[in-house]
Amino acid sequence: MNPSRDNDGEFGVPFPGRTVPREQWTKTGFRDPGTPFDWKGIFGREAPRVVDLGCGNGRYLIGSAVARPDRDHVGIDVVQVAIDYGAQRANRRALRNVRFVVGDAVTWMYERFAPDALDEVHIYHPQPYYEPGEAGKRLLTPEFLERTWTVLRPGGLLVLQTDNKSYWKYLLAAVQKFFEPELIRGPWPDAPLGRTRREIQAHHKGLAVWRMQAVRREVPLAVAIPPPDFDANRPQFRRRGGK
After folding, report:
1. Mind listing the domains of the chain with CATH numbers?
2. SS (H, E, C) the chain
3. pLDDT tens-digit map of 207-232
4. What are the tens digits of pLDDT across the range 104-157?
5. pTM attached to this predicted model
């Protein structure tokens, strides 16, 4: 991924891509239509489809869109200001193969994306929810993993990353029902300093980061997986410098 030339960086790490003159800017912000997402109608072509759930300010998605112009990208986040930052940066880089939308990941996975519609789903640093009473808010439930399996095409890829050890231990067991995981030892080759703002922050604070990419199984395994009701271990996380 090409480094930026406009001092648009975070924690000393340049943001992917290069800005262009204003007359070349694009419009990548997208309003949730409330109906299934029309990939061909919006991007004007048939291409591999990449989705980033909880995309934040779009660092990964923009980097991927720059490096892989043959793929179409959609970033979803519930935080309006994060989506605004992502769209503005993508606009200034004249990207046409990415859209940013304010929305809920569950709604989009169940109501906006059809079965066998996606090629990649990326989820970086899902919220672990530290308070015991909030465990039910965690995104990566058995039901959600099954839905991810459903919307991915055969051979599709699920990419996960977290800096919470308890969440990681849960995912190691839960993901295997629907996917064949490959653990990534060390940094991402395409972004050794961090694919996301949160990953860069974790490195800055000295936190461990765990990564996997998992290929969709043709048939899920006949095993039961528990709900994500683990103890996220907030006190230990804080001692190591986390939020």
Report:
1. 44-239 (3.40.50.150)
2. CCECCCCCEECCEECECCCCCHHHCCCCEECCCCCCCCHHHHHCCCCCEEEEECCCCCHHHHHHHHHCCCCEEEEEECCHHHHHHHHHHHHHCCCCCEEEEECCHHHHHHHHCCCCCEEEEEEECCCCCCCHHHHHHCCCCHHHHHHHHHHEEEEEEEEEEECCHHHHHHHHHHHHHCEEEEECCCCECCECCCCCHHHHHHHHHCCCCEEEEEEECCCCCCCCCCCCCCCCCHHHHHHCCCC
3. 999 999 999 999 999 999 999 999 99
4. 999 999 999 999 999 999 999 999 999 878 999 999 999 999 999 999 999 999
5. 0.92
